[in-house]
Specification:
The structure holds 3 protein chains of 3 kinds. Chain A is an alpha+beta fold. Chain A has helices at residues 33-44, 105-113, 123-128, 137-143, 154-158, 160-164, 171-181, 189-197, 210-214, 221-240, and strands at 2-9, 19-26, 63-66, 69-72, 86-89, 96-98, 101-102. Chain A contains 10 helices and 7 strands. In chain A, 46% of the residues are buried. By secondary structure, chain C is mainly α. Chain C has a domain at 11-72: Fumarate reductase/succinate dehydrogenase, transmembrane subunit (3 helical TM bundles of succinate and fumarate reductases, Up-down Bundle). Chain C contains 5 helices and 2 strands. Chain C has a two-stranded antiparallel sheet with strand order 1-2. Chains in contact: A-B, A-C, B-C. Chain B: Keywords: Cell membrane, Membrane, Transmembrane, Transmembrane helix. Chain B: The chain crosses the membrane at residues 14-36, 56-75, 95-117.
């Protein structure tokens, strides 16, 4: 069996505009889009560029737009696209470097900005203390759903608000912030709130909800972002009542 | 990039709070209110005469009605219009905020004023 | 050199999820029309019996009734979307256990029915 696969190419040394190119790829029931890209590069066109690593939906490297929907190439199969055909484009809302390679710099900066790590109550103590931080199943349950993010960035390609304003801190970063805020071992919420409280924080979100639809790990970033709005609104009330913000 | 910038607290929690309260009202109260006042009353399937209406609306329950059925839904409505305008790239954020929230405020103030005069 | 694709005004037409989103956002347009009708009605009521019955006549205009029918449908569609979002934005606990999302959605629809019963009782009771 063969399927025509169309790929949006971008070769900056040849042309300043992207263009579409079609390839005919043999497939069976287990051929993934990532397999198809590898076939094209090895057998048909060595100039094609794309990212990949694990082939099993855990590294989060092979994100693409497939017929307009953000997906991991390794997580989707040619057999399901016989009727509709296949158009593969680079992940939306990011600058494109070459073919399917996007520049993830802004995504990484946004992640870093929310301090996505445990901040201990006493920073000196945390360096010296190697005591285990025991956690009950209930304490774990509070944040566990939001801790499965693999940083693939698909939610940013699904988010029109990030597309409209790249300064928006975005679904994955806000979800990580929320994940650490919900962790009883963490004492860093006060440090994260200014980012969440800002216009580019939780308040750029309009609950389109598509981020949660495309998330390959069912993290539900839209829920995390909107729970952060509740946290942020509470934080505002406390600051107005004269408490520390 | 993000770290160097002075982060300003957004006033959006206020508008979002009003929007959410209005969202609950729009979902819970408005279906019945639209059905009775917007459809059954004009079709004369229910009756509301002037005296009855005037007593009820310019009393205590009328004030509750204005809050739950006009004021909160007005803020809900104009909050969504505000953000939908931004979505379709009318991005004069400050102007649109003043126009939409101002209009919601105006509708609210007008309703309250009519209630005060009427009661 | 990299290039950054920009969103056009019509980005929301390119995908079913975005169209449903925009439809949800636009439910407020017929709502706003209905609210304006109500404010006008309230004003007429304050102006005396004649103005009130004049307002009732305006509400019988087929175009007005058409938009208000749309408003009714919009309110139900809004309720359908809004009730689903609620358990995700504010997950509730009862007796140390999370309340299931379907239970919260059903509870909110029960609220809609309760309001219907109340208004029906006010008019017909």
């Amino acid at each position: 069996m063969e399927l025509e696969v169309t790929i949006q190419r971008y070769l900056p040394e040849q042309s300043s505009e992207p263009f579409n190119q079609s390839y005919t790829v043999p497939y069976d029931t287990s051929t993934s889009v990532l397999d198809a890209l590898t076939y094209i590069k090895e057998e048909l066109d060595p100039t094609l560029s794309y990212r990949w690593s694990c082939r099993m939906a855990i590294c989060g490297s092979c994100g693409i737009m497939l017929n307009g929907k953000p997906m991991l190439g390794c997580n989707v199969f040619l057999r399901d696209y016989v009727q509709t055909g296949m158009l593969i484009e680079p992940m939306a809302h990011f600058p494109v470097e070459r073919d399917l390679i996007i520049d993830m710099e802004s995504f990484l900066t946004h992640l870093e900005a929310v301090k996505p790590y445990l901040i201990s109550k006493d920073s000196k103590e945390s360096v010296q203390s190697f005591d285990p931080h025991n956690q009950t199943p209930r304490q774990l349950d509070k944040y566990q759903q939001f801790s499965s993010c693999i940083n693939c960035g698909l939610c940013y390609s699904a988010c029109p608000q990030f597309g409209l304003n790249p300064e928006f801190i975005g679904p994955a970063a806000l979800t990580l912030a929320h994940r650490y805020n919900l962790d009883n071992r963490d004492a860093g919420q006060a440090e994260r709130m200014p980012m969440i409280n800002s216009e580019e924080g939780a308040w750029s979100c309009t609950f389109v909800g598509y981020c949660s639809e495309v998330c390959p790990k069912s993290v539900d970033p839209a829920a995390a972002v909107n729970q952060s709005k509740v946290t942020s609104a509470t934080d505002l009330i406390f600051s107005l009542l004269g408490g520390r913000s | 990039m993000q770290q160097n910038k002075q982060l300003k607290r957004s006033d959006e929690p206020i508008w979002w709070g009003l929007f959410s309260a209005g969202g609950v009202c729009f979902a819970v109260f408005l279906p019945s209110i639209i059905l009775f006042y917007g459809l059954l009353l004009p079709l004369e399937l229910v009756i509301l005469d002037y005296k009855q209406a005037s007593q009820w609306f310019f009393g205590f329950w009328g004030l509750i009605f204005i809050g739950a059925v006009i004021i909160f839904p007005a803020f809900h409505s104009l909050h969504r219009i505000r953000h939908a305008l931004y979505d379709v790239k009318f991005q004069q954020k400050t102007l649109i905020k003043w126009l939409t929230m101002g209009f919601a405020g105006l509708l609210s103030a007008t309703s309250l004023l009519i209630w005060v005069i009427g009661s | 050199m990299s290039y950054r694709p920009t969103l056009t005004r019509t980005w929301w037409l390119k995908n079913t999820a975005f169209k449903v989103y925009m439809l949800r956002e636009l439910t407020v347009l017929p709502l706003l029309f209905f609210l304006l009708c109500l404010v006008k009605g309230l004003y007429s009521l304050s102006q005396g019996a004649e103005a009130w019955y004049l307002w009732l006549a305006v509400m019988q205009n087929p175009l007005v009734m058409l938009i208000n029918t749309l408003a009714l449908l919009a309110s139900l569609f809004h309720a359908w979307t809004f009730f689903q979002l609620f358990p995700r934005v504010m997950p509730l606990e009862f007796g140390g256990k999370k309340v299931s999302a379907p239970a919260l959605v059903a509870g909110q629809w029960a609220g809609v029915l309760a309001v219907f019963a109340l208004v029906a009782w006010l008019f017909w009771g």
